[in-house]
Amino acid sequence: MKVEDILELLKEDKPRVSSELTHVWAVFWANFKIFLSYRTWVVMETISTVASIAMYSFMGIQVDARRMAIAGYEGVSWLSFALVGVATANYLWMCISRLSHSLQHEIREGTLEPIVSSPINMRSYIIGQSLRGFLVSGYFMTGVLLVGVYVLKAPLTIRLENILSFVAVILLMIASYMGIGIMAAGLVLVYKKGDPLTFLFATVTEFLGGVLFPLKYLESIPILYVFAWLMPYTYALDACRKILLTDATIISTQVITNLVVLMLYTVVFIPLGLRVFRWGLNRIRYEGTVASY
């Protein structure tokens, strides 16, 4: 064997690095196929979603329409009011918690180390997992709204302008909270156990965001009322209700104000979340605890 042949054998076989877009698609498609494989779970979750909406319809019978009018929602049924709140709240937290739940699964199954040591950029992993969460959560949110409108006859405004405006607000809502989800994922990398940050935010947000009751009821408790308006979800839900309940659009004055606030939260939370995630990733690499659980 010639010297040139020996040197050729000793050369490092560098893996072909695909584009970041290819990595994002690979992560998304792999996890989406896993989702599709659990057909029974999908069916059961769909049935559970329909049942929960039916329960809210019966609860709405007990709510006096005059109380809704006093709270600033004259002519709006409680079912429509709660329907928008429940649909957006569930969508938000299914999206935000998806990344941390995925990392917990990787840690538990012992597959996090191959992911971290592979040529794939962790940014691609985050985006791919998030896209899967958006799509799956969107399925359930759409189901909630369709059941509410066409089965329970909830009077929502369904026009092309309203639908496009609603989608724009939802995207901004997710962007404003994405940093929190990434932050929770960074903490999961280090502490391995659960994601208490997203659970805490979900509980507090659903209560103070006014998912099932108008925020006017909190005016008698100033601390809670002020804190409620410090959360981005409050502005997102207010915009969604104005669009679907009062026929506003994204260019309406009362909606634009909410959008500006959501953009500000996005600018603050996403860089903070990325810094925490990078800290968590660097720490487990430094401590050699990538494979521990």
Beta percentage is under 5%
Instruction: Count the beta strands.
Output: 0
The averaged pLDDT comes out at 77
Q: State the helical fraction.
A: over 70%
Determine Rg (CA atoms, Å). 23 Å
What structural category do the secondary elements indicate? mainly alpha
Name the helix and strand elements from N-terminus to C-terminus, one letter apiece: HHHHHHHHHHHH
Q: End-to-end distance, in Å? A: 48 Å
Instruction: Sketch the major β-sheet.
Output: none
| Number of individual domains | 1
Poorly predicted spans = none
Characterise the protein shown here.
The chain is mostly helical and 293 residues long. The chain has one domain (20-287). The protein is 76% helix and 0% strand. It contains twelve helices and no strands. It has helices at 3-10, 20-37, 39-60, 65-70, 78-109, 112-117, 122-151, 160-191, 196-208, 222-228, 232-246, 253-287. The longest helix is centred in the last third of the chain and has 35 residues, at 253-287. It is globular. The N and C termini lie far apart (48 Å). The mean pLDDT is 77.
